[in-house]
From TrEMBL:
Residues 1-96 form the CRM domain. The keyword RNA-binding applies. The keyword DNA-binding does not apply. Keywords: RNA-binding. It comes from Neobacillus pocheonensis. InterPro entries: RNA-binding_CRM, RNA-binding_domain, RNA-binding_YhbY, YhbY-like_sf. PROSITE patterns: CRM. This is Ribosome assembly RNA-binding protein YhbY. Pfam families: CRS1_YhbY.
Length: 96
């Protein structure tokens, strides 16, 4: 579980990032979760964009992704979800 201080730190890191995944009409599926897990291992922190045509609520989408990829939800702002998971091999971010 992330502390408030760690979340603030990660939010500042994520501020400059562009979303690298989009959740659309199909919602969240196994393939997407698998890709997100792999991307989290490589990057640790990134944004996911929830498109207008997505039928699920963005909070539900965030919970599905975080649960499936075993990640932490750093922030949900607008239609953008910020996810974080500590990498086992390519650790780049040191939390305060």
């Amino acid at each position: 579980m992330l502390t408030g201080k760690q979340k603030r730190f990660l939010r500042s890191k994520a501020h400059h990032l562009d979303p690298i995944f989009q959740v659309g009409k199909g919602g969240v599926n196994e393939n997407m979760i698998k890709q997100i897990s792999e991307a989290l291992e490589a990057r640790e922190l990134f944004k996911v964009s929830v498109l207008q045509n997505c039928e699920e609520d963005k909070t539900v989408v965030a919970e599905h992704l975080a649960e499936g990829a075993d990640a932490e939800i750093v922030q949900i702002i607008g239609n953008t979800i910020v996810l974080y998971k500590e990498s086992t091999e390519k650790k780049q971010i040191t939390l305060p």
